[in-house]
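ok, trying the design again with the full structure, not the truncated one.
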């Protein structure tokens, strides 16, 4: 099973919405700092930020988004995303368990004025 399939299966089991985006098709998605044409040096990493920002802006009914890179597999379907949400924060990042590195490819974003 591919990692994207584990994400979809997990979302279905838990009753979460699941959306996928294909890069580089995201180059036309608006960004918080202007249209894609305004920032021609935008790289792949920043496309992720634009996707989440645009999704939150166009889905005000959504409280939180969990962004996962395509290479992230769900290994424990019994855990709930809500276990990781701390409502004192608007952005929640993760540390790798084997280093102190902050993982930029997976994060939780609250639909809030701060995040938008």
């Amino acid at each position: 099973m591919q990692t994207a399939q584990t994400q979809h299966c997990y979302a279905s089991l838990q009753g979460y919405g699941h959306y996928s985006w294909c890069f580089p098709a995201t180059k036309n998605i608006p960004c918080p700092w202007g249209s894609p044409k305004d920032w021609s040096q935008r790289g792949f990493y920043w496309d992720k930020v634009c996707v989440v920002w645009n999704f939150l802006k166009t889905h005000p009914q959504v409280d939180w988004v969990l962004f996962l890179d395509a290479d992230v597999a769900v290994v424990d379907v019994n855990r709930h995303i809500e276990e990781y949400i701390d409502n004192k924060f608007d952005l929640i990042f993760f540390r790798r368990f084997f280093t102190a590195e902050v993982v930029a490819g997976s994060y939780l974003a609250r639909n809030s004025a701060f995040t938008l």
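Keeping the full-length input from now on. Helices lie at 3-14, 44-58.
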